Amino acid sequence: METKILKVVRQGEAFGVQSSKTENGTIQKCNIVLREMGGSKFENEYVCAMLGNLAACRFYEGDVVAATLRFSTHEYQNQVFQEILCTDIVKLNK
User: Fold this and answer.
1) How many CB atoms neighbour CB 91 within 10 A?
2) pLDDT for 7-24, tens place per residue?
């Protein structure tokens, strides 16, 4: 895992997805786009998933956050996909 200081580009709405790890079989998920700090729109960006209670947190364009990201890959039908999970996120600016 890696913790970074990032700027929020945008965040989608939370929605339910199936999960075998929860009692009721579903968990809330939302996607957030985070950009590394720098002077341009060409800095590295990450499309991250936020799960559970974290998916209910709301962040807005321009918010500066400290986020812990977990990078992983999985294979599906002979294709490899990268996933980025935001495991913790805290707004730094007011």
Assistant:
1) 14
2) 999 999 999 888 877 777
| HSE-up of residue 65 (Cα within 13 Å, Cβ side) | 25
Question: Alpha-carbon distance 14 to 62, whole Å?
Answer: 20
Is this structure's pTM higher than 0.90?
Answer: no
User: In one letter, which amino acid is 84?
Assistant: I
* Domains of the chain: residue spans and CATH: 2-91 (2.40.50.140)
- 6 CA to centre of own chain: 11
The region that residue 41 occupies, defined by phi over 0 for left and psi between -120 and 50 for alpha, beta otherwise, is alpha
Residue 93 bridge partners (DSSP):
none
How many Å is the maximal CA-CA distance in the chain?
A: 45
